[in-house]
Predict the 3D structure of the following.
Amino acid sequence: MHNPHLRSRGKISLVLGCLLSVPIMAFIALTQGSVDISWSGMVNAWYTGPTDTQYQVIFLLRLPRVLSAIAVGGLLALAGTLMQVLLRNPLADPYVLGVSGGASVATLEGILLGLTLPWLNVTAFCGALVSMALLFWLAKDKGQWSPLRLLLTGVVLAAGWGACISFILATTNDQRLYTLQFWLMGDLSFSQAPVSALLVLVTGLLCTQPLARSLNVLTRGEHQAMALGVETQRLYFVLFVIASLLTATAVSLAGNIGFIGLVVPHILRLAGLYDHRFLLIGASALGASLLVAADTVARTLLAPQQLPVGVVTALLGIPLFLFLLRQRDDL
C-alpha cells in the first residue's frame, strides 16, 4: 500500500532537505576521523595554508574523498532510480543486477592492459553496457521481459561477474591487482578525479529531467505509456545508456559499492515522493549524503584502521533488500 503522494510544497521541502543534507554531512566528514578538527581549526587551517597539518588533513586528504563520495553516491542513486523504472521493478539497482560487476571486470582487464584513468572509464562503461545487454537478452522470454525474470537473471549475472573477478585475482601475477581487492569491496581511499565524476552526475541530471514526465507515465505500465504517446523503445534505449554511464563512472572511481541505488529511491518513496521531476534530484542528493555518512563511519569506526565503505552500505542495504523481497506478492 503506497503512502499518499506529497503535495507540491511537500515535494519541494523534501528535495530541499535532501540537498541541505549534502553540505551538512560533508562538514561532519571533514571534521571527523582519526584526527578530529573543530570549526575554528578548519578556519585557522584555511588561513594558515599548506604548511599547516590540519590544512593537509582537510584539503589534501579528506576533501577529495568527500567530493568523491558525493559524486559516487549521487551517481549510484540516480542510476538505481532509472533502473527501477527501466525494469519496472523496485528491487533493481546496479549492484544487485550485475551492472556494477560488469564494469568492475572491464576495469580490472583495463588495468592488466596498463590503461590510464580516462581509458579505464571507457572500459568500465563498455563493461556496464555489456552487462545490461546480457541482462535483457538472457531475461527475454518469447519477446517479453517480466520484472521477476529480469531480477532473477540480474542476481545470477552478478554472481557470474563475481566469479570472473575472483578468477582474475587468483590467476594473475600482477601485484597491482592484489592491492585492488580493497577497492573491489568499495573504497574511496584512492579516488581520483572527483570533479569529472561530479560533472557526469550533473550532466546525468540535466539529461534525465526532460524525461521525468515520461518516467512518471512509464511507471504505470508500458501499454499505458504507449497509449499516451510515449516512445517507449526510444526511452528504454536512453535509460539503458544513461544508467550504464552513471554506473561505470561510479565503479571506475570507487569500486563496487552496493545497495545505494536500491535504498535511496525507496526511502524517498516511503516518504511519499513518486514524481520523478523531484525524485531524480532528491535521490541524487540523498545518495550523496548517505554515502558521505557511510564513508565517515568506515573511516572512524575502527580508526586509525579503515573499512571499505562497501561493507557499511551492504550492512544497510542487505536487510532492506530482504524486507522488500518479502513484501513482493509476485515473488
Observations:
- The chain has one domain: 61-327.
- DSSP finds 15 helices and no strands in the chain.
